[in-house]
């Protein structure tokens, strides 16, 4: 079994979701949102996000983490602040010794919904479908669960590719093209 932490970074609201993956079956474990206080300085807000994510990591002890990449806003100041929050989202699991993988928003949506430009409501609906009985703590938590689901799907594909590459063919050589999959 592998426990995956998905993170949807944001300065005001950072969504998180934890799923267990066993034999290509996913099970919801927990989800929520870490918030920061808008009246505080940027450094204090980033500290709040870090503290909150560290509590999530200590409570749910994930084996792997997946973080959604930042998309560029029209407002460069907002993009920079989001990037700093994303840095915290990458740092917290990395400092805990947890491997971190990054996914673009389009890759997450395409994996979970089947369309790279899906609406937030479609993502939340598909997360509920893929994780039955899951009570989602809002749109940010749904996005974080979608990131975890995306990671689980891609991890399954990587494992299958590695198995196929190692399986011998009739000529005694491994199948595949000799490339390593990551």
From TrEMBL:
It catalyses: Endonucleolytic cleavage at a junction such as a reciprocal single-stranded crossover between two homologous DNA duplexes (Holliday junction). It comes from the Bacteria. The active site is at 8, 68, 140. SUPFAM superfamilies: Ribonuclease H-like. The keyword Nucleus does not apply. The RuvA-RuvB-RuvC complex processes Holliday junction (HJ) DNA during genetic recombination and DNA repair. Endonuclease that resolves HJ intermediates. Cleaves cruciform DNA by making single-stranded nicks across the HJ at symmetrical positions within the homologous arms, yielding a 5'-phosphate and a 3'-hydroxyl group; requires a central core of homology in the junction. The consensus cleavage sequence is 5'-(A/T)TT(C/G)-3'. Cleavage occurs on the 3'-side of the TT dinucleotide at the point of strand exchange. This is Crossover junction endodeoxyribonuclease RuvC. It comes from Thalassospira lohafexi. The gene is ruvC.
